[in-house]
Known about the structure:
The structure holds 2 protein chains of 2 kinds.
Chain A: H1 6-14, H2 20-33, E1 40-43, H3 45-60, E2 72-76, H4 103-110, E3 114-119, H5 153-160, E4 166-171, H6 177-183, E5 186-189, E6 209-214, H7 217-227, E7 257-261, H8 262-266, H9 272-287, E8 291-295, H10 303-318, H11 336-347, H12 350-362, H13 369-389, E9 395-399, H14 415-419, H15 426-431, E10 435-443, E11 446-454, H16 459-472
Parallel strand pairs in A: 2-3, 2-4, 7-8, 7-9
Antiparallel strand pairs in A: 1-3, 4-6, 5-6, 5-10, 9-11, 10-11
Chain B: E1 11-22, H1 47-50, H2 61-73, E2 77-78, E3 81-82, E4 84-88, E5 98-102, E6 108-117, E7 120-133, E8 137-139, E9 151-153, E10 160-166, H3 173-189, E11 202-212, E12 222-227, H4 230-249, E13 257-262, E14 267-273, E15 283-284, E16 291-292, H5 295-304, H6 309-320, H7 324-330, H8 334-345, H9 354-376, H10 387-398, H11 404-417, H12 421-427, H13 436-449, H14 451-458, H15 462-475, H16 482-495
Parallel strand pairs in B: 12-13
Antiparallel strand pairs in B: 1-10, 1-11, 2-6, 3-16, 4-5, 4-15, 6-7, 7-10, 8-9, 11-12, 13-14
Amino acid sequence: MPFETVLELRDALDGGRASAAELAGRALARAAETADLGAFVRLRPEDALREAAESDARRARGERLSALDGVPIAIKDNLIQEGEPCGCASRILEGFVAPYQGTQVARLRAAGAVIVGRTNMDEFAMGSSTENSARGPTRNPWDRERVPGGSSGGSAAAVAAGIVPAALGSDTGGSIRLPASLSGVVGLKPTYGRVSRYGLVAFASSLDQVGPLARTAADCALVLEAIAGHDPADSTSLRDPVPHYTEALSGSVEGLRIGLPREFFEERGADPAVLACVREAVAELERAGARAVEISLPHTRHAVATYYLIATAEASSNLARYDGVRYGRRAAASSLGEMYRRTRSEGFGPEVKRRILLGTYVLSAGYYDAYYRKAMKVRTLLRRDFEAAWDRCDAIVSPTSPEVAFRLGEKSKDPLRMYLSDIYTVSANLAGLPAVSVPCGFARALPVGLQLIGRALDEETLLRAADAYQRRTAWHAARPEAVR
Amino acid sequence: MSPAPAAHPDYEVVIGLEVHVHLATESKLFSPAPVRYGDAPNHDVHPVDLGLPGVLPVLNARAVDLGIRAALATHCKVHPRSIFARKNYFYPDLPKGYQISQYEEPLATGGWLEIEVDGRAIRVGVTRIHLEEDAGKSIHEDAIAGREGSHVDLNRAGVPLLEIVSEPDLRSPEEAGAYLRALRQTLRYAGVSDADLEKGQFRCDANVSLRRHGASALGTRTELKNLNSFRFVEDALRAEIRRQAAVLDAGDSVQQATMHYDSERGTTRVMRTKENADDYRYFPDPDLIPLALDPAAVEAARRALPELPDARRARFAREYGLPAYDTSLLTESRALADFFEAAVRSMPARSGEPGATAKRVANWMLRDVLAQLKEGDREIDATRLAPEALAKLVALVEEGRVTAASARPLVAELMERGGDPEALVRERGLEAVSDASEIERAADEAIAAHPDVAAQVRAGEAKGLNFLMGQVMKRTGGKADPKRVREILARRVAAR
């Protein structure tokens, strides 16, 4: 039953037409068939089947834990699962096995989900293509010569290839939405603080959020419901009660005001074919009763620069702990300084090193005010742009990515061009707002994503609009030829 | 008031101190791991303390309360908002590669502490107080026989610390020592910390510079790191003052540097110059939200502060009429002062002279109890002596039921084993000899044994009476009331 949604699998389980053990077995088999995609860095065949059998036993006793009970799910390699290696697709974490449980996995397990494996990613979530992985790149199921987007490219590919109906990713500057867009699936980055970060290996702490990738907005709603909510182990986690997201999916966008930021539709460098898909999606939403209004987010012009200052500054500090002293890789050396140097030189890939260097520079004495402090000020201005926009609209639309999936290696030598992939996505992270990417068509036979950004803690509006759009369109039902 | 004697004839000495003190919490500043001393290495650690991937810090509310208390006890302004920042540097005992501290917006600023040096009261400014986590300990191979390489113990990593920075208001090593003693005493009174120097719970860095007397600009300072006893601080400062004075005398200028004090040689040497100073790349820790304090809660904490040493000394003088020497010793620690007051309270009421009663208890405390504590190097609450027991013992002596000489050795015994002094006196047969005939018999024996001395006494030589008294006390096993012995002896000598 590849390509079925979480809801369809739930119905099959509830109706006795499938067992969790069968679903886990199929997911594992399909992962093996599509191994050349490089979607997974690790499968858990025995554990997944055991978890599935436990789920079946629960269901037989009438003790189903949630709609996710028995549903196979994949998690990104930067999420901690107790007793499992957590590598972040980096050589520096070789040999590290997590001795504690992360909140995200704990909640998925408490909902009964079966965790089939860990998905590939850009090393430490730094990248937009899933090429920066010590485990080799992940390929786009729509075209194996192209990237799936990043950094949660393994999770996006695993869903797009019909291996699992849903996966967890993490999004610091677009790392859920960009691969969702390039791989033709739905990806949701929740409001900052909505999902606990305890157990998410930090890249940039003030921007990181964990969220779902799935085929539909309705499935994202189900997964979000399971993982969201206050966690005393994360001081930045929000106390607001978690709504029943699935109940918000009325199918209607009647009266919804959707804001079109002038800056996002003027942006030079965006593929006209992508913009055309997005404009058509807006027209579809209007036909469904939504009202489009033009708005302005003037400081988004500085968003990419601001993002790469703040994210790298935080990363330079967050990644200092990988020093070879306590866990992971340690290079042989005759002095402490040499041990640090060699461990980190050999352990980190080039993009991670680039960002650590940039972030170290940004925080250095004499540069802090010019870069970090100024970036924090722009971040505040950007937040105000959004606050002003909410007077005029309820959701903001844009392309998720300025272009469709690019070829493997196409941007690897040009980091700046790669960074511009994030041009539409980083603003939501900087402002801490929820955002979703929904498939909205194809350009040159490759998926295009529509991004919707919402008010803080208003995932309901985003999911309702995305779900309504999916009820009226069939883009998400298309299956990649290459892996059919 | 006379001006302070200069610490150096040619230069004015300017000293500022940074004190790191462990807070008396059950658990660490950002993790639930226990704070304990002496456990096996790396026993008291949580994934947060190990800096594992994916962990996050959660602030210990108790540490904040203690920080507020320390700030209030040193008259600081507690800020309604403060920020935790990361101090980034690499070291094997620093698991995350950064220390969580406070930088631009600390917990509290602008306080003071009053100290007394040679009878002069000096108000020393407290610049700032902030919360931070301690690092672990590195243990190098030469410290562990037969083991290779270096070892890291993270039991201490994440233990809550308060950094207390003074203004450069101190003018001599003695003043620096007095400030540290007063600060430690205040923090202990306020219940902020046990401040046990041997456990590393109270550590000091000192900044020192010299300038010509009368100069207004500060000289270039150097920093002395990790001075772990008061004596050490004063000795290190003296050595560094000598060094800087020699540099200046030679016409050279002092270089800003971190100094190491070699206690064996009694000299300081440069450990690291400013050019090689670390750039800590401080920035606000994005894992922690700003610490917001409710001003009403801070006021409540102010009201709940226990009586601090200065106030207590003043009250002891006022209420009990004790001299400064007594009040200062009796208020050394909160436990000792509490003990003294409890003992005074349980003394049987005697008409007309509450001051005299207090003074009698004070004398026993100062002469016997403190001597025993000092000998055993321990605190009053680590003994089994109850204040009621001491009061009873003092009362027994006053009532003449036991002599002071017999009672004194009982203090040590009561501290060791506890119990009721009256029962102990009985058990040991130490009741004072009050039977006049027994004393008379002993007096007669003494006179008979030393007729020459008796003759001298009769001739008006007082010295001889003391000798005979000693003889009588010996014969009565020290249990006779000396006043009665003197009366009876005088009578019996004269009667011959």
